[in-house]
């Protein structure tokens, strides 16, 4: 991977802090759960979580070992923790960040080709789960009902599984079926509900926390909303893995995002979601830009639209996305809303998203924000490192972001966020 930052003191500081955080995660801590507690809410299941637990730390140490900045002993230690319990292979919570797909993704990133029999077993589990999810989704479409967020989102749904397959098995038939589903997801659903045909195909009555949401909503975010499917569709299209209607589906999502883009003195921004009253009014509740995070803010949405512009060879869309990102990162008011260093909704997520956006950018304007954002990440990571160890919500994600920026690694760990 090309270097976007000169060999400056900030890079040395990033490498040093990445090493320090990684060293603090050499050994898994003692289990913090009751040994006989196998309930769904037990923290023992965090081991299979890329977001919160051992799986995310395996990715950190695996990438560092592959780039010559660590050894394999901590990888094996956290691998044992990750696989201590039977791997979850069904249920609404199982997806890219948890259970069989998360563990399969972890091995493909951290230990590529090193555990072929175990990887094959996981691949079969992922294929069974994906088949069940796809059958349920197509049956839902056939009866014209609304999708759950965890049917299609990046965290738990088919977009996340598609991201894993695009990285791990890009030539497989299973990825084709997932892409066919994502194309159908973008088509309007003639549902007998108040939203009707005004709503897009991904209109959902499920809230991000899994509970019901009266009247439904269209979620725009990268984690639980339509930006996740857009990124997967765009990345697949860009790499020549296409299905009928693929380009039109990308354009349909982009047109929706264009419709709900809001002007601002510091550049355009997007709401987190569109509720029924806003859909009927044709405009969102008045407000301003959200926290500029990966999960729901301008950086995640801009990166998804940048990928769409690249895939469709639409320089205007790509440039508009990059302009939105740079104007957001030049606005102190928006940046002041970021209060933690994590990947999901903090400085590491902004830095990682910016890093990959800069690699693809049409000009150097995006890359000019790398150094100040990295400095902010270093400052917040030193002052307020999260208690959790995992990649998305914890220290492993901070360390891996710092490591990637300091070394220019080309190992595709950021598939976990679908920004690479």
From TrEMBL:
<dbReference type="InterPro" id="IPR007822">
    <property type="entry name" value="LANC-like"/>
</dbReference>
<dbReference type="InterPro" id="IPR033889">
    <property type="entry name" value="LanC"/>
</dbReference>
<dbReference type="GO" id="GO:0046872">
    <property type="term" value="F:metal ion binding"/>
</dbReference>
<dbReference type="Pfam" id="PF05147">
    <property type="entry name" value="LANC_like"/>
</dbReference>
<keyword id="KW-0862">Zinc</keyword>
<dbReference type="GO" id="GO:0031179">
    <property type="term" value="P:peptide modification"/>
</dbReference>
<feature type="binding site">
    <location>
        <position position="344"/>
    </location>
    <ligand>
        <name>Zn(2+)</name>
    </ligand>
</feature>
<feature type="binding site">
    <location>
        <position position="345"/>
    </location>
    <ligand>
        <name>Zn(2+)</name>
    </ligand>
</feature>
<keyword id="KW-0479">Metal-binding</keyword>
<feature type="binding site">
    <location>
        <position position="295"/>
    </location>
    <ligand>
        <name>Zn(2+)</name>
    </ligand>
</feature>
<protein>
    <recommendedName>
        <fullName>Lanthionine synthetase</fullName>
    </recommendedName>
</protein>
């Amino acid at each position: 991977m090309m270097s976007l930052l000169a060999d400056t003191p900030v890079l040395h500081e990033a490498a040093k802090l990445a090493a320090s955080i990684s060293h603090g995660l050499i050994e898994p801590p003692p289990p913090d759960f009751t040994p006989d507690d196998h309930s769904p809410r037990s923290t023992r299941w965090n081991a299979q979580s890329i977001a919160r637990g051992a799986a995310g730390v395996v990715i950190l140490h695996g990438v560092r070992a592959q780039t010559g900045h660590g050894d394999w002993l901590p990888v094996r230690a956290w691998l044992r923790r990750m696989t201590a319990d039977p791997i979850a292979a069904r249920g609404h919570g199982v997806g890219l960040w948890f259970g069989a797909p998360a563990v399969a993704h972890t091995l493909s990133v951290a230990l590529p080709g090193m555990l072929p029999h175990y990887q094959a077993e996981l691949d079969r589990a992922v294929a069974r789960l994906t088949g069940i999810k796809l059958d349920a989704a197509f049956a839902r479409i056939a009866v014209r009902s609304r999708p759950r967020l965890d049917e299609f989102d990046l965290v738990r749904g088919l977009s996340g599984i598609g991201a894993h397959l695009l990285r791990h098995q890009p030539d497989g038939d299973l990825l084709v079926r997932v892409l066919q589903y994502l194309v159908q997801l973008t088509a309007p659903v003639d549902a007998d509900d108040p939203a009707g045909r005004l709503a897009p195909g991904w209109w959902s009555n499920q809230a991000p926390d899994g509970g019901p949401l009266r009247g439904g909503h269209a979620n725009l975010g990268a984690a639980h909303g339509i930006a996740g499917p857009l990124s997967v569709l765009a990345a697949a299209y860009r790499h020549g893995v296409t299905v009928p209607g693929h380009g039109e589906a990308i354009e349909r999502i982009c047109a929706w995002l264009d419709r709900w883009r809001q002007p601002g003195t510091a550049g355009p921004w997007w709401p987190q979601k569109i509720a029924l009253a806003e859909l009927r009014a044709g405009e969102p509740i008045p407000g301003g830009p959200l926290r500029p995070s990966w999960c729901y803010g301008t950086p995640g949405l801009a990166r998804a639209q940048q990928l769409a512009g690249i895939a469709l060879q639409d320089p205007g869309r790509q440039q508009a996305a990059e302009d939105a990102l740079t104007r957001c990162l030049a606005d102190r008011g928006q940046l002041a809303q970021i209060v933690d260093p994590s990947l999901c909704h903090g400085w590491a997520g902004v830095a990682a998203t910016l890093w990959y956006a800069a690699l693809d950018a049409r000009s150097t304007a995006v890359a000019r924000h790398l150094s100040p954002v990295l400095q902010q990440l270093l400052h917040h990571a030193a002052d307020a490192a999260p208690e959790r160890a995992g990649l998305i919500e914890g220290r492993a994600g901070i360390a891996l972001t710092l490591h990637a920026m300091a070394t220019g690694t080309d190992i595709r760990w950021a598939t976990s966020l679908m920004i690479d």
